Amino acid sequence: MGKEMIAMLLAGGQGSRLYALTQKLAKPAVPFGGKYRIIDFPLSNCVNSGIDTVGILTQYQPLVLNEYIGNGQPWDLDRLYGGVHVLPPYQQASGSDWYKGTANAIYQNLSFIERYDPEYVIILSGDQICKQDYSDFLRFHKEKGAEFSVAVMEVPWEEASRFGLMVADENGKITEFQEKPKEPKSNLASMGIYIFNWDILKKYLVEDEEDPTSENDFGNNIIPNLLKDGRKMYAYRFSGYWKDVGTISSLWEANMEVLDPENSGINLFDEKWKIYSRNSGMTGHKINAGASVENSMITDGCNISGAIKHSILFAGVKVEEGAQVEDAVIMGNSIIKAGAQVKHCIIAENVIIGQNAVVGQMPEGEESGVATVGPGVYVGDNAVIGPNAMISDNVKDGDKQ
Amino acid sequence: MMNTSNTNALGIIFPNAYDELVPELTSERLMASIPFAGRYRMIDFVLSSMANCGIDNVTVLVRENYFSLLDHLGSGREWDLTRKNGGLNIFPPFAQKNMRVYTGRVGMIATIMSFLKSQKEKYVVMSDTNIAFNFDFKALLDTHIASGADVTIAYTKEELPDSIMNSEELNKGRYYTLDLEGDRVKKIHINSQEPGVQNFSMNVYVFEREKLIKLINEAFMGGGVYMERDILIPQLGTLTINGYEYKEYTARIGSLKGYFDENMKLLENENLDALFGKNPIYTKIRDDNPTRYVNGSSAKNVMVADGCVIEGEIENCILFRGVKIGKGAKVKNAILMQDTVIEAGVNAEYIITDKKVKVSEGRELKGTDTFPIFVAKKQVV
Fold first, then answer.
1. Which one of B126, B276, B329, B334 is CB 3.0 to 4.6 Å from B346, fit for a cystine?
2. Calpha distance A323→A292 (Å, rounded)
3. Spatial distance between the Cα atoms of B218 and A230, rounded to a whole number of angstroms
4. By CA distance, what is A276's nearest residue in B?
5. How far is CA B236 from CA B109, B141, B212, B233, in A?
């Protein structure tokens, strides 16, 4: 029996603007929100929306991501028929190729989709933080009798020119597509989430592949081709929380927004729309007698003796006595030694910040950069790391960067 | 992670043993499913220890009140015990004509005799669930095999807790102490009243499977009920029974007060490390979000699981998953089990709340150091 809709999740992004964080990690595997990775959001959305078949297209540094996904059990995606499948580029009789673009990645896996013979295919992006019910989106697609639908967000007009924009009539029918235009005719930004009728997707991917001049990209090639042919294309307005966490500052900001669910609109505490993740299996976190914790999120395995203010701590983080942590995102198993000051920054996994070291600083005037320390880095005692710094190698005791 | 190659032993767990010592906590569950240490159930410790030692054929002999345990264990996946060969087996009592529900180990093991005969492992490791530990069963097995003994009993050296020695009811939880000569057990006492440090049996046993089958069959035919009273004690002269001193951390639940104290001891980091530092202890996953400390909250010397929202003040507390502490509430020296809700302005000290308890706005609830107040499951105060 065919599936009604299956999901294809584009997770090949290198995330080059996350620098130190993604040197050995695909962007969708970047940790987020205390115990999640970015990819937990689209995967949990899928399973919460009743989609039980997901193909994950990986290409860049897939090791951690592959291990993390495993058999898909944490997301309830270990299924007899369907479930989650990691789809790296593979060798074919006619030669092999890296995924050349988003459309080509799907094209190379047409046979995967064929196995499930779906009516619809939803294309998702593995680098966004968003809680969205895809079944609402599908209902819209069906009601409109669409062949292609794209989820869009209203953005402020002055920022519109940074996005791919859908110009639509009052009915939601798309009449024009503008990629980062100088003079926007619309403020409906594409979220990079598409629903296709399967026959249409297949037809256009095959045709696109035959075009040697194509970049094999959904935004640049497939959507313009659909428009040119006058296909039934609709824009689905989404008004919930959505954030592309492609840069250090947007990643930091999105984490900070998790701390303020009442105002930011991203609520991880929603029993009806749980975000699933692979569990650390550590004990409850421990806050010792001399510690202070204000307005923060702390998870299993943490052991806190210092002062934590407005920060997110991932599993197994240790903060020693006299250390100060403020406006910081500290990823799994990192250790902040006694007297260190860690402020307004992102500390990746397995980092050690030495005694009395200083990392980042609270914004003063113009200077508001987010310092970043890459995974596994040792920052020596008394070292100083300024705001905006991007550290991916060990820092000696007393050094300044 | 330690050696996880297959161990030539199967496990048998008795989840109902000592239910009667903590009637408050076992009115709707059994010893094995008593919540402990913030996010675990008592059975997690023995089950994880077995799984970590490569014992991946584990039988749980449930007797009564076992719904909560079945829910917790599921297929055994969290302990990596979902196996085609072996894995987790849960044997409820036979609901069959002319069969009674056995209370002693002899009758309970007799009900799984055909299963036991068909297994391949050479040894059997048995345990109750009233002790939280991170047990290296591999070391115990190695010692047993090297000694050539028929039976090895693990014990701790400690004073017997008042709560079980002074129990009003004679039948409340049979316990055993050992007299040793070298490693050899010379005498097994039932419900000893001796003061001072004793060799206190953990009821963790190693047998050779064939030998166990023979001993149980003989005893069962002769009307035997309790393995210790009806097999081990009468045959102390003929069997080689050895003691194995367990020197690592243990948290033994013998009363509600003991339950409170053993939880509180884990607020000391060295105790926490001793129990959890060696090998992972697995438990059922709930997919809670991280715990959130809202502005105006304060936390001192607490262990908190995921999924909590803290708006008030907590001190010397253990919070299980999904606990909510309202604004201005003050909770000290307390154990709050899963999904307890403490509303705004509550003032509470020395309390144990079972699952899904709600303490309404502004209430005052104070127990004492020696007598913590217990609020039963789903009660509203």
1. B329
2. 11
3. 86
4. B287
5. 20, 20, 15, 5
Q: Per-residue pLDDT tens for B13-57?
A: 999 988 888 889 998 899 999 999 999 999 999 999 999 999 999
> Residue A287: phi, psi to the nearest 5?
-115, 115
Nearest to A299 by CA among A282, A314, A288: A314
Distance CA B294, CA B303 (A): 17
Q: Do A297 and B292 touch (CB under 8 A)?
A: yes
Locate the chain B residue with the closest alpha carbon to A304.
Answer: B301
Q: How many other CB atoms are there within 10 angstroms of residue A267's CB atom?
A: 14
Interface confidence (ipTM) of the complex: 0.86
Question: B170 pLDDT exceeds 80?
Answer: no
Q: Two tokens at B212?
A: 């166990």
Kindly report, residue by residue over A166-189, the tens digit of the pLDDT.
999 989 999 999 988 889 999 999
Q: Give residue-wise pLDDT tens across range B318-356.
A: 999 999 999 999 999 999 999 999 999 999 999 999 999
Chain A residues in contact with B309 by the CB 8 A cut-off are 269
Q: Cα separation of B127 and B119, whole Å? A: 18
Do residue A259 and residue B292 have CB atoms under 8 angstroms apart? yes
Mutation site, B80, B292, B327, interface A, largest A CB count within 10 A: B292
Question: What is the distance in angstroms between the Cα of B233 and the nearest Cα belonging to chain A?
Answer: 40
Q: At CA B148, angle to CA B145 and CA B152, rounded to 5?
A: 70
Residues of A with CB under 8 A from a CB of B: 33-35, 73-74, 259, 268-269, 274-277, 279, 281-289, 291-300, 303, 312-313
What is the band of A96 on the pLDDT scale with cuts at 50, 70, 90?
low
In contact, B35 and B337? CB cutoff 8 Å: yes
Q: What is the pLDDT of residues A252-275, one digit of tens each?
A: 999 999 999 888 888 888 888 999
DSSP string, B276-335: HSSS--------PPPEEE-TT-EEEEEEE-TT-EE-SEEEEEEE-TT-EE-TT-EEEEEE
**Hey, is B42 helix, strand or coil?**
helix
Q: What are the structure tokens assigned to B76, written together?
A: 């055994």
Q: Is A137 helix (H, G, I), strand (E, B) or coil?
A: helix
Pairing of strands A188-197, A285-287: unpaired
Whether A117 and A2 have beta carbons less than 8 Å apart is answered as yes
CB A22 within 8 A of CB A16: yes
Determine the pLDDT at residue A111. 93
Answer yes or no: do B77 and A259 touch at CB < 8 A.
Answer: no
